[in-house]
Amino acid sequence: LGVVAVLGLEAAAPGECELTRLLQDKLQYEMRLQYMKHYFPIGYTVQVQYEEVLRPSNITRLRNGTVSEVALRYLWFHISSQAVLRIREVLPEKHPSWRYTQELAWLFDALGEEYSQYRQTDVEEVVTDVVKLLHSAGAESRRKPVRPKALLDNCLKVMRMLYGAPCEWGLG
Predict the structure, then answer these.
(1) pLDDT tens-digit readout, 127-161
(2) Residue 59: which domain range?
(3) What is the 3-state secondary structure (H, E, C) of 108-139?
(4) Which domain CATH number covers 73?
(5) Could you tell me where the beta strands, DSSP code E, fall in 2-152?
(6) From the CA atom positions of the chain, what is the Rg in Å?
(7) Phi and psi for 157 in degrees, rounded to 5?
(8) GO MF terms on file (predicted)?
(9) Which of 48, 97, 125, 128 has a Cα-to-Cα distance from 136 of 20 to 30 A?
(10) Distance CA 50, CA 143 (A)
(11) Residue among 112, 132, 168, 158 nearest 51 (CA)
(12) Would residue 11 count as lying in a domain?
């Protein structure tokens, strides 16, 4: 029964498509540039765990390792929502980027409701291991500096890879 449920989830759910479309709108280049670069000091970085940086090349490697699209979307959600939290941690409430990151966090919270149906047993072990690492206290020592804009750039690129075709997004 679990296999049938996972196979049924290969196509992105309508709720996922709508929320990721809204995220795509929020992550437009001009907004990322303004809120994640211009409103931060030159060269500013956020300390993140190595696992919190998800690039298109990571997705390609995992796909070649036969990780399902469902598991990849689950992984993207966990890493991207964690990245938004990392950025929010460094912002005072009066910062010009506060409201923007709040709106991103709300969209990820709503997307989290869509993913609440997933059980970690439904996705490949390699993905559950990374998700566990993201939320474990021991991984805090494995940090690297990353620019806030780079985190959201990767979030958008990977989101387009994972949702563009199943959600039938046009190019642009």
Answers:
(1) 877 777 776 766 566 788 999 999 999 999 999 99
(2) 21-164
(3) HHHHHHHHCCCCHHHCCHHHHHHHHHHCCHHH
(4) 1.20.1250.80
(5) 46-49, 143-146
(6) 16
(7) -60, -45
(8) macrophage colony-stimulating factor receptor binding
(9) 97
(10) 6
(11) 132
(12) no
